[in-house]
Amino acid sequence: MIQLNFKQIVVFVLVFVFSVSVFSSLTSAATSTPGFRENICSRLTNFISKMEVRVSEKEQRIRGRHQDGIEKRGEKLEAWDARREERRASANEKMTDFFLKFEQRAQTDIQKQAVAVFKAAVLAAIQTRQAVVDAAIVSFRSEAEKLLAERKSVAETAVAVYKVSQKAAFDKARSSCESGVDPKTVLETLKTELKAAKDKFEVDRQAIEIVASKIRALNETKKAAFDKAHGDFKVALEKAKLDLKAAFPQPTLTPAISQTTTPTLSPTP
């Protein structure tokens, strides 16, 4: 299943970071507004508390959407598998009718044998293709789940480290204010430490992109397996058609064979 929406995580994490304009206004007020020096720490503490509440609420909303996403993805996969089986069943019915028409056309023992060989070859080709496709799907989903779990772990670790650094910066700012440190120094120090935490988070986040590239590579591997399975099936089908033609008079069989397209004889993979 798809795990966490990491772009949303980044958004809610970065909401914590004070903008340059906020720092500039507070710093300016701390140095130029009469009486503001005395209550700057109180205002800073209130501002930090409000930001923490906002981010906590946003985090809860994101996790709620994340859980909904997991459930919806599971439902989509189940629906996709069901549609695939339905298409295969429908194609199997058409294929049975197709084989029946050829069996009815067969007059001699040689022709009957040729139809039997043709039918066996086509069924074997279909089964082989479906087996390859199904195996590719199972492998992709299994490996993708592992990578998604890894990505989730990497992202959550990066977020946790960021939040710890951020909290330390906030706690230090509060403590400095209570200790009588100049408000301008408190704000500038907080700004510097939050930027360092953000920069560290951005570096850690690169590991998430590496995992994402692995998932894309998995998808390409699955697609390559699909393409090869389809290609091998077409080759086997064409050979079976040529062998069948040899046992029947051309005017009788050629039209029917020419209409034997891959979709007709191949249940959806």
From TrEMBL:
It comes from the Bacteria. Residues 1-29 form the signal peptide. Keywords: Signal. This is DUF5667 domain-containing protein. The lineage of its organism: Bacteria, Candidatus Brenneribacteriota.
